[in-house]
Amino acid sequence: MTATALLLSLSGALYPLPAEAAPDRLVIYSGRKEKALKPVVDAFTKQTGIPVDLKVGKTAGLANEIRMEKARPRGDLYISTESGIVEILTKDGLLEPHQSAATKAVADDFKSAAGTWTGISGRARIILYNKNLVPEKDVPRSIFALTDPKWKGQLAIAGTRERTTLAWATALVASKGEAFTRDYLKGLHANGLKILADNTEVWQGVGRGEFAIGLTNSPNYYLSRQNNLPVGVIYPDQDASGWGTPVNPNVAAVIKGAPNPEAARKFIDFVLSPDGQRILVTQDYEIPLVDNADAGAVLPLKSIKRPAVSAERLAELEEATLKLLTSLDPNW
Amino acid sequence: MKLIELSGVSLTYPNAVEPALHDLSLDVKEGATLSILGPSGCGKTTVLRAIAGFEHPQAGEIRIAGRLVCDGKQCVPPEERGVGMVFQDYALFPHLTVTQNIAFGLRRLAPRAAADAVTHILDLVGLAGFEDRYPHELSGGQQQRVAIARALAPKPVVLLLDEPFSNLDPDMRGQMREEVQEILRRTGITAVLVTHDHDEAFAMADRIAVLNRGRLEQVDDPESIYHTPSTPFVANFVGQADFLPGRVENGKIHTEAGVFENVTGHPHGTAVEIMIRPDDVHITPASPGTAQIAGRQFRGSENLYTVLLPSGQYLHSSEASTTVYPIGTSVELTVAATHIVTFVKRR
Amino acid sequence: MTQAAPMTLARPAPAASGWFAQAGAIALLAGVGLLILPPLLYLASSAIQAGTLGTLSIGSLAGLALTTLALAALATVWAMLLALPLAWLVVRTDLPFRNVCRWLAVVPLAIPSYIGAMAYIALLGPVGSLNAWLAALTGSHQQWMNIYGFWGGVFVLGLFTYPYIFLLASAALEATNPSVEETARSLGEGPLGVLRRVTLPMLRPSIMAGGLLVFLYALSDFGSLSLLRVHVFTTAIYHQLNTRFDQAAAAMLSFVLVLLTLAVLVGQHALLSRRSYVTITGTARVARPVPLGRWRWPAVLLAGGILGLSVFVPLGVLIAQTGTAGQFLDVLGEQWSFIKNSLALAGAAATLAMIVGFLIAFSAKRATGNTGAALLGTIQMGYAIPGTVLGLSLILLYNTYLPWLYGTAGVLVLAYLIRFLTQSVQGIDAALAGINPHLEEAARSLAASPGAVLRRVLAPLVRPTLFAVWTLVFISAMKELDATLLLRPAGFDTLPVRVYIHTVEAEYGKAGALALLLIAFTALPWLVVTRLRDKKLV
């Protein structure tokens, strides 16, 4: 049994189990990629001296966690990749309002009426296409053109596991009505639309030529380019009579009952500062949501035509949209 | 002095209908060897395990060296009883050497004293030189000697042996019997030996307890067990025996093979059976004789004849190894019973 | 020479050591109960409270159950097809390199199935390397190969779980007495007849036990099946939780999955209730290796093929993905703290599982009536709870009742115990069952208390098994992802979590390097233990 003692002391020596999070640390639950957020976090720590513990996961998974931890919250700040879910958390009373000079600079349709969440950056829904498979003249300019039989078997989209997909479909229902949306989606299905696990599969599938066309988010275009994939991008339905294309915000919210809410507030303000916005834009090609922030290489918010749908409306319609989608195909 | 006392011990195993031990009372004197003898399933090993503390009787008391170790409710655990046990399969620890096996029970001794004790006991059992062997590197007899040495090393109050010779070759068995007897004699230890072999019991024990289906049939010295068994079961189990029917008339027992003294004083007219051992029956060829030879088994040191009486009853006779008669020979019987044992005839 | 014994005691005092042992056993049972039952009860109660299938229909539930069971069954058969020939070749024949093969055959256990799936998607996916090569070769852009879907799931799961069967079957092959097979030959059976009528039936308990491990693994696996786009219970549960945000439906699905697993366990118990253990004592002769003759090189090809698919191909893909040695070393330096986290967690979980498993197996053996079986059954159920569901229920339970523990790495160790304790208990239980009970009694009669018997006799006798179960639990804990993702304290990532994050974020070089590190560190103790065993040190 000496071997046992040895093994135990070995594990102990390797790592003393960490104590409960100290109150002077900021704990962030992030559904946003680590690669995108980490530089902002580092800059924040450098500027404020507040150390940050980052827990990266899936947006909804972390929301489930916040729900389960309601009695004794462990996280301070929640970063979501979409606004529907923070609306649900707001209704459940799990978020703490935060309003400041910095949040005032965010466009109204990218923050909560109750002040419980604020958009920190945005991603537009785009058509991503493979340049080798789609000649320049055939590139579709509208999502509604994708029901054309010539795209049969060449379309891909992420399932609703990616909440941006759900937000996109919900925006369709909100502005075009359920009947129209159903017909449109039926048309896509008739065209053999492939529903994939996530957006990574979409941009890689398109980039490698498994699919000619994918419906995904704007940063994925830049990411594909960075990986030297032969892709092109269309911001669809931008002409005067067009529907526009939704821009989904990445969102930050202070968790109610957080051990360290002050640090969380400071972090939101920092992300919305010119420094914070610049890091997000250059790091992951996200669209700045703050007025007159530098958009860099990315198409700025004011140049994108968007359907006018409020976040509250999206949250209301989400459940019905989900039912509609799964009634068409359980894979959504 | 009574070193081990069992009084009214009863034990029933879970889910069993019949008790394994039924109201058993027994004692063993200090320094004596008791053999518990009986057929398989009679409960003899259970008695041993109850003394050792592996089985808990539901009723009765067990005392070891005057100390109550079990009262039918509470039991002292085996490790606090000071008994040494030798298992049928020896149960040597396969991961320990001979020395380590023997020293297993010597934890309370200083290392020096323990080493001396091991040396001493190895000499006693004649295993000096095998100290560092592992059990699988020993022969069956050597393994048994280790098992005995291991049990003796902590100087137990009593040594319990469970069918210790049954795993040995017949040659080895006789030799080990003598060796173990010598070891018991030299250490003067009290021993309880469980066996189903009456020769083994006769050879080893001062007293023998015969067990049948959980009940005690008889406890006595070996000679009495053999010559004056108190039940037909004992008579049959401890050696070849024939039971001749007879009748008490005028103070004598009349049978087909002769007339015997009515030593137990059965009343006139009682139908009895008289036990006759082969060594009490002598045959001589005669023409015409009263009986006829029906078979012969050559056993090396003797010839065992089966003799057919006119009534159809068979009787056995032990004759010298050199005395050979052909089957069918007409013979005259002489029954010279040294001990007349009678049982009232069973219906 | 009789010992002077106390002659006075009138009543036997209940032995103090016995009482302590009793109390210890009860405390142990209570501890195990408190560890495993609350998540199960929580699951049952939330399923019953929900009382509805939500967006699910009975039909889709039945379809899901059918797919899940079919997948698990086929993966098990596939794993047997891989494991049994390999086991026979390395144990019973003069196969060249058989010692190397024997060691390599266990390495797939160190490759998490989600990493295996990742590697095979890169190779056999619709836009994978193989299709690209074939397209370049033939000039036709048709899709030759597509690993996605049901059959891909079967292929990958069998490939990375067959060592469970291989380990048990090869050990049993080694322990069986060759004279039994020789008897069959002398009775006129040919080699194949002996295999079919003697060898395989003798191996059946081991094959069944290993097959069960594969089957349960397939039932509870999420990572690889999600990557391979197979729709089974675990992926449906994940979908309900992470898209639908619907904990009720997830609880219902999980509950059904746990019931399914339970049914499998009960079935196995019924089948094996008359199981016979291979005797581990005795001096079984080592079988003379069967000369392969002209089948020598085909056999090498077969063994090489199996090991190639399950070890070299995935490792090769990962190495190609990682890039240069310099990049690999960069990742090693950058992520050292996470490696440390994984090693400490898996080490602590394995050590605890080994000690607790030993004590439990020991108590279960002693427990009267059905208590022992109930205890072992309860522990097995811990394995049945999907990791994601276990994670969520532990968040609620521990954050509410043991807040000082939740938020530390300790909660991860407990989660690993819940999931993997059964591996340790089952192994040690089987080993204990093979020990002659007289050894224990002999020790007791030599004044050893029950505790001393445990320490001085049983523990040394099962020591090889203790090392084996330590390794097994260590491997499982090193690979655990689903529960870890949820339960890890902020900032406390493990290797699988890092592989997951970098894969999701499409940083394949880093993911590949970390996957290689994970595999290396997971395989390490196995290497050490086998080396020690070869030198007869354990």
Describe this structure in words.
The complex is a heterotrimer of chains A (332), B (347) and C (538). The model of chain A is unreliable at 1-21 (pLDDT under 50). Chain A has 332 residues and is α/β, with parallel strands linked by helices. Chain A has two domains: 22-122 and 249-298, 3-Layer(aba) Sandwich (D-Maltodextrin-Binding Protein, domain 2); 123-246 and 315-328, Periplasmic binding protein-like II (D-Maltodextrin-Binding Protein, domain 2). In chain A, helix 2 (34-48) packs antiparallel against helix 11 (274-284) and helix 6 packs across helix 7 (178-190). In chain A, 41% of the residues lie in helices and 16% in strands. In chain A, strands 1, 2, 3, 4, 5, 6, 7, 8, 9 and 10 form a ten-stranded mixed β-sheet that branches. The model of chain B has no long low-confidence stretch (mean pLDDT 90). In chain B, the strands form four sheets. A six-stranded mixed β-sheet of chain B has the order 6-7-8-3-9-10, sandwiched between helices. A five-stranded antiparallel β-sheet of chain B has the order 13-12-11-14-20. A five-stranded antiparallel β-sheet of chain B has the order 15-19-16-17-18, with no helix packed on it. In chain B, helix 3 packs across helix 4 (140-152). Chain B is of the alpha+beta class and 347 residues long. Chain B folds into two domains: 2-237, 3-Layer(aba) Sandwich (Rossmann fold), CATH 3.40.50; 242-344, Nucleic acid-binding proteins (OB fold (Dihydrolipoamide Acetyltransferase, E2P)). The longest helix of chain B is centred in the middle third of the chain and has 18 residues, at 170-187. In chain B, a hairpin with a 3-residue loop joins strand 16 and strand 17 (302-308). With 538 residues, chain C is mainly α. Helix content of chain C is 76%, strand content 0%. Chain C contains 23 helices and no strands. Chain C has helices at residues 16-50, 58-92, 98-104, 113-124, 129-138, 150-175, 178-186, 191-220, 223-227, 233-244, 247-272, 296-322, 325-334, 336-366, 371-384, 387-401, 410-433, 437-445, 450-461, 463-479, 482-487, 495-504, 508-534. Residues 1-17 and 274-285 of chain C have low confidence and may be disordered. Classes of the chains: A alpha/beta (332), B alpha+beta (347), C mainly alpha (538). Chains in contact: A-C, B-C.
